[in-house]
Structure formats: C-alpha cells, structure tokens
Amino acid sequence: MHDTAKTAIVTGASSGIGLAIAETFLARGYNVVGNARNAMRLEQAAARLGERFLGVAGDIAEPATADLLVERTLQRFGRIDVLVNNAGVFIAKPFADYAAEELERLLATNLKGVVYASQAVAAHMIERRSGHIVNITASIALQPLLKVPAALPVLIKGGLNQMTRALALELAPHNVQVNAVAPGLIDTPMHAPESHAFLADLQPAGRIGTPQEIAEAVLHLSEAAFTTGAVLPVDGGMSSGAW
Fold it and tell me: Does 155 map to a domain?
C-alpha cells in the first residue's frame, strides 16, 4: 500500500534553493523525491532528510532521467502532487563573450530540463486531474540589470515565464495549476560570501534573499487552488522597476 501523503518532486535538490524546498515540503508532511546530477551530494542530502526523501540521481536535461523520476516516484509513493522545476545554472557575462558550450549548458539544464520533467509529470497529473507545477525562473528575466549582463539567462528564463502562462492555460481544464517563482539574488553556494555586499546593493530591500524565502513561496503556490499562470517575484523589489 502506498503512502497517502502528498508527494513532491524537486529537481536540483541537493543544495541551495532546491534543498530548502525539499526541507520545507518534508516539514509540511509531504514525501519528496529529489533529483540532482551529483549522486554523492544527493546521497548526503538523503541521509540528512530521512526516509520520506528519495534521491534519484541523473541529468534532468536527458528525457530518460525525467521518465525515471516519475517511475521511481510512483513505485515508492504512488502519486505525484507537485513538480518543482528548480535545477538551473546562471552564467552572467557580456553577450558577445558567451561561448557555444555555455549556451548549450544553459539550454540543457534551464530549458530542456524543465520541458522533459514537465512533460513526464503532466501526463500523470492530467490522468489524476490534480497537480501543481512550479517553475523557478529569475527576477532578472522580469527586469534586466545593467550591472549584471546576463542576456542568455534572461532569454531562457523569460521564455519559461511565458511557458508557465501558456501551460497554465492548457492544463487548467485538467485541474492542474502551473505557476512560477522568480527569485532575486539569493544566498546560495552560487554566490561567494565576498560578493554579498555588492549583490545586496542591487536590490531595493538592501539585502540578498534566503533559500527559505523562496521555498515558502513555492509551497504557497503548490497549495493554491485558484492561482495559475502566475509569476511571483521574490526579489526584495528588484523587478519593480529600474534600479
């Protein structure tokens, strides 16, 4: 017999925002299936998070990984209530300086990873007539910054914002909600401690955010029955206008 608790899949779950999201869902009583490319780091997270957390290692940019995630989740827990497309990379540099391999890396994780995971999970949610998909995009895609040149991440994350709206419309008749959280600059291993003062100055709130603040927004959207197609900035006001 499968557990009757709700189950969430979180990609990029071994550290930073993804780990905070996994912890928040577990504290709420969910089962959590976490994905990451780094198997060792995922195993460390699993040891810390307990038996209601299942780690499934693999590159989410590969369709087979998305299929395996769904298969392992249904085998272990019998249901998928939430998908959080959190896995992502961010490369900021002048547009003309992006190398071909950097573009491919951004497309693989930030675009293909979201598409494949969402396709695999949406089929299950449509059949159940219930579910939530939450995409982690980026505040900078809502309001680009002169001091942070990042045209390619803006291109891809901005596209995901629009995909969120389009997919919300498509899945609404099936009682599946699709939303996005657009984080500002967050205190994760992606940002060296010595950069925090500079990053804080880029946000009207005067500080960088915490992974827990993003996780709480994700949890809210994952339980909102009448909210779909929303892109929620959690960025200290950074996307409100020129800054």
Answer: yes
